[in-house]
Amino acid sequence: EVQLQASGGGLVQAGGSLRLSCAASGIDFGRKTMAWFRQAPGKEREFLAAIRWNRDVTLYSDSVKGRFTISRENWKNTLYLQMNNLNPEDTAVYYCARGSQYSSQQYDYNFWGQGTLVTVSS
């Protein structure tokens, strides 16, 4: 059974930082592109960052480039998202996902975690 378990969300003040984790099981984690998306209330789900299996190639959306860092530890089957300088517009449910190819498009991601809520107060 494929499972992606996101964690690390919570309440943080503007300007603060959080580190999200996504523990994977039941998938060939070390050979797959992984990504983070988020969905804010009343908005569509948005791509944030992707990382190829070899960890050396990453892709970011303009909205988070320079503030967020995606990384992975293949030996632990775990994906991370370090989020710095958070602002209230970053409030959303954050999802990790496994991709069939290196992409920013949701349709290229076929397994999704349950999401973890990040709330940024002003």
How is this structure best described in words?
The protein has 122 residues and is mainly beta. The relative contact order is 0.31. The protein has strands spanning 3-7, 10-13, 18-25, 33-39, 46-51, 58-60, 68-73, 78-83, 92-99, 109-112, 116-121. It is 0% helix and 52% strand.
Mean pLDDT: 95
Order of helices and strands: EEEEEEEEEEE
> Could you give the count of β-strands?
11
Major β-sheet profile? 7 strands, mixed
Structural class: mainly beta
Report the span from N to C terminus. Answer: 40 Å
Helical fraction equals under 10%
Radius of gyration, whole Å:
13 Å
What general outline do the C-alpha atoms trace?
A: globular
Low-confidence stretches: none
Strand content: over 45%
Number of helices: 0
Provide the descriptors you would attach to this structure in a database record.
single chain; 122 residues; mainly beta
Short description, anyone?
With 122 residues, the chain is mainly beta. The chain contains no helices and eleven strands.
